[in-house]
């Protein structure tokens, strides 16, 4: 089975649960192109699960100024059933019929998803092979380990080749080898199916996704390519020559001495001035070094872990939220 990957558009989406003092989501906006793999991140209570449930049609879209949620151009507020037919969803707590064999469970779920009867055996084999379940098809689900039960949930989400796949913590309960296998399988979906992937294992998101959307206190605090999230405002450089010559090259590039941390010999880390990208600073250092006649052995852009970016944007959001509440401007 094959369907083209779906786009996802979320515009000014807010959601408040009955009786809640503050909204679970507040004016969240982002777009996902067909075939993209997007990591949805945020602390506990940030609104990730609420967002995923709305996208999948499990929760209604609450009307508001400019609010719109669309999957493959279909409006989730007015075409909910059509949207659900576009989406495969794995919730964090996987609902399974433990008394059924794996094949029976997947056949039942395929029928619900309107996979034609004659196509079901081949479709079940396809998702079982993708998720490593082929040897377990005749096993009762109640006899499976937690890791294999998680695989059944992922296979269920992939039944019918949905154009958009939404997975909430898909590798929970898997051992390290299984995690690597599932990561490879999910990465292979890129281009063929659009993937929204939520995980608390940030290294996993870093390895798997093209972009990250980070929520904090129901707000979107970052939406950027993974490469941008990992980039720091530093440049690492090493010259083949004396440190004095390297210092002259940095001065000629307009780099203040206070922004340079020297290592062994002619090796330094440069903190980029405000308003200048690491790429621009690296290019300036390269040109100045060439003009000064000192050879550059290594010139690299700094790199950080996704955890650092996550902590920075979510921490700032939490502090802003506290200030709003203190001044009586908290989310209403």
Which characteristics define this entry?
single chain; 332 residues; alpha/beta; Rossmann fold; 2 domains; six-stranded mixed sheet; 14 strands; 36% helix; 24% strand; disordered C terminus
Folded structure, characterized:
This protein is of the alpha/beta class and 332 residues long. It has two domains: 8-216, P-loop containing nucleotide triphosphate hydrolases (Rossmann fold); 231-303, 2-Layer Sandwich (Alpha-Beta Plaits). The chain has eleven helices and 14 strands. It has helices at residues 48-55, 80-84, 102-112, 120-131, 146-158, 176-187, 202-208, 226-230, 243-252, 278-292, 306-326; strands at 8-15, 25-32, 37-41, 68-71, 74-75, 87-90, 164-168, 194-198, 211-216, 219-225, 231-240, 260-262, 267-271, 295-303. Strands 6-7-8-3-9-10 form a six-stranded mixed beta sheet, with helices on both faces. The protein is elongated, with a radius of gyration of 24 Å.
Give the secondary structure arrangement, pairings included:
Blueprint: E1 8-15, E2 25-32, E3 37-41, H1 48-55, E4 68-71, E5 74-75, H2 80-84, E6 87-90, H3 102-112, H4 120-131, H5 146-158, E7 164-168, H6 176-187, E8 194-198, H7 202-208, E9 211-216, E10 219-225, H8 226-230, E11 231-240, H9 243-252, E12 260-262, E13 267-271, H10 278-292, E14 295-303, H11 306-326
Parallel strand pairs: 3-8, 3-9, 6-7, 7-8
Antiparallel strand pairs: 1-2, 1-4, 4-5, 9-10, 11-13, 11-14, 12-13
